From TrEMBL, chain B:
Compartment(s) of residence: Cytoplasm, Cytosol; Nucleus
Keyword Magnesium appears in the UniProt entry: no
Organism: Collichthys lucidus (Big head croaker)
Subunit description: Part of the multisynthetase complex (MSC), a multisubunit complex that groups tRNA ligases for Arg (RARS1), Asp (DARS1), Gln (QARS1), Ile (IARS1), Leu (LARS1), Lys (KARS1), Met (MARS1) the bifunctional ligase for Glu and Pro (EPRS1) and the auxiliary subunits AIMP1/p43, AIMP2/p38 and EEF1E1/p18. Interacts (via N-terminus) with KARS1. Interacts with EPRS1. Forms a linear complex that contains MARS1, EEF1E1, EPRS1 and AIMP2 that is at the core of the multisubunit complex. Binds FUBP1 (via C-terminus).
Superkingdom of origin: Eukaryota
Protein name: Aminoacyl tRNA synthase complex-interacting multifunctional protein 2
Chain ranges passing through the membrane: none
One Gene Ontology CC term in the entry: nucleus
Taxonomic placement: Eukaryota, Metazoa, Chordata, Craniata, Vertebrata
Length: 168, 322
């Protein structure tokens, strides 16, 4: 069963694209360019927002552990999904949100647990797409460390090369 | 230099009664004679009273150690399983209705939350009294049907003048609230001036969780597992997001779009996520109620609101809105 993932090229959902890139070994996802973002699962079910798409992709490939290893990690992932969509994408208050993120990352390599999860994908994508982030980056050392650590890894760098250049 | 010789102290050939069950060996001390000292005599026959006292003392110490070990094991048992030897007396006095059949697929707290470490699992929620979290109150009353929950309400110093119905929203104070070990879950609601609802649980491992939607997901997973089908589970999450961000916080236009989407989903299925009542229904119901758009809702939504109310889970939310 191949999943049909259409993306809006003027505003690509980086987080969902990263999730698709991570699960492509276990699930077939075909990415097409179109007008709006949509994941077609079946005729009755399709998801339109980036968080739902990421959640679905993480759930069809449970062995990757993108949704956390237990219920408490799942809840943390949910927290960061909302954080990236509500706190990092809204323009005002970025500094406060980054301060909270910095505090959370001070003792951690990944946002949740000890491996990559949707939390890392969505927060990284939100920062990547944020105009203010490159200027703010210097003052938040932990976020900066975590951000460049992820940016250097393959799924992140390939998504970055494929989709962010088009946006500019 | 030759050594001088000592004459034997006792007679050269003292007769001793040897046991007959043993074979005989030649006497290697024959030359020196049978030099039996008083100590040997005591060891072979009568036991020295000092040794006897020492033995008695050691027995006493061992007995005390065993007692101590038993006491520590008993304590460890009550610490790791808070209700280990209290179950019989407690369950009758708490009159739990554990046979709640609302949700299929019974979840066990140890399975979902990991091993019990002895302390009460306390869910602490900071909520702003300006936006009472209706969905969490509904989930709280469902949790109370399933588990022994110790519920408490506090008012943080950052807010003043909290209405009385918010102070009593978790029901009357439990008569056994002094005995925390008798409960499986703690539910502590703190009215506090926070921009966004927060939950703190297991703070060593978890970051504080923000947002009513995420706390609701967490509490619901204590009641019933999410659908195992990835599409259905994601649909539940998608409805929860829609409820809290578009119904509760959105503009009038967004709200009517959501009501239309609800109407068409409820035309296909009795509940939002198919055949089973789920968190999607709880979240959407509470947000429809809170946004005051229940009366202007389309037909399928009206019918669904009635079905929700028939379940009887929503009385805590309705009480607060009056």
């Amino acid at each position: 069963m191949a999943l049909n993932f259409t993306i809006n090229t003027s505003n690509p959902p980086l987080g969902a694209l990263l999730a698709a890139e991570h699960v492509k070994g276990s699930v077939q996802v075909s990415v097409e360019e179109g007008k709006d973002t949509r994941l077609h699962v079946s005729d009755a079910i399709q998801f339109n927002d980036a968080n739902s798409i990421s959640r679905y992709l993480a759930r069809v490939a449970p062995s990757l552990g993108l949704y956390g290893a237990n219920m408490m990690e799942q809840t943390e992932v949910d927290h960061w999904l909302e954080f990236s969509a509500r706190r990092l994408c809204g323009q005002p208050g970025l500094t406060v949100a980054l301060g909270e993120l910095d505090k959370a990352l001070s003792l951690r390599t990944f946002l949740v647990g000890h491996a990559i999860t949707l939390a890392d994908l969505s927060v990284w994508a939100a920062l990547k797409g944020h105009k203010e982030w490159p200027n703010q980056g210097k003052s938040f050392s932990h976020v900066n460390r975590w951000f460049s650590f992820l940016s250097s890894q393959v799924p992140f760098s390939s998504v970055e090369n494929k989709y962010t250049t088009k946006k500019a | 230099m030759p050594m001088y010789q000592v004459k034997p102290i006792c007679g050269a050939h003292a007769e001793t009664d040897l046991p007959t069950c043993m074979y005989k060996l030649p006497n290697i001390h024959a030359q020196k004679g049978n030099s039996c000292t008083p100590e040997h005599a005591l060891q072979n026959g009568e036991v020295d009273p000092a040794v006897k006292a020492l033995e008695a003392r050691q027995d006493e110490i061992m007995r005390k150690l065993h007692e101590l070990k038993a006491a520590v094991e008993g304590l460890a048992k009550t610490v790791t399983t808070p209700d280990a030897d209290l179950d019989l007396t407690v369950s009758s006095s708490l009159s739990e209705s554990a046979s709640s059949t609302t949700f299929k697929g019974v979840t066990d707290l140890d399975n979902v939350l990991g091993k019990d470490l002895g302390a009460l699992r306390d869910i602490v929620i900071n909520a702003n009294p300006a936006q009472p979290p209706l969905s969490l109150l509904v989930l709280h009353s469902l949790l109370c049907q399933r588990y022994r929950v110790l519920s408490t309400v506090h008012v943080h110093s950052s807010v003043s003048g909290v209405p009385p119905q918010l102070l009593s929203c978790l029901g009357p104070r439990h008569a056994d609230s002094y005995a925390r070990h008798m409960f499986q879950l703690g539910f502590t609601l703190i009215w506090k001036d926070v921009p966004k609802l927060q939950m703190k649980f297991s703070v060593q491992n978890m970051c504080p969780i923000e947002g009513e939607a995420n706390v609701a997901r967490f509490l619901f997973k204590l009641l019933a597992p999410y659908p195992s089908d990835p599409a259905l589970a994601t649909m539940v999450d998608s409805w929860v997001d829609t409820a809290f961000f578009q119904l509760a916080e959105g503009s009038t236009k967004e709200r009517s779009t959501v009501l239309r989407a609800l109407n068409s989903a409820l035309g296909r299925n009795p509940w939002l996520a198919g055949q089973e009542f789920s968190l999607a229904d709880i979240a959407c119901y509470c947000c429809v109620l809170q946004s005051g758009s229940a009366s202007a809702a389309p037909a399928n939504v009206q019918r669904w609101i009635k079905s929700c109310e028939n379940l009887g889970h929503f009385s805590p939310a309705k009480l607060l809105l009056q």
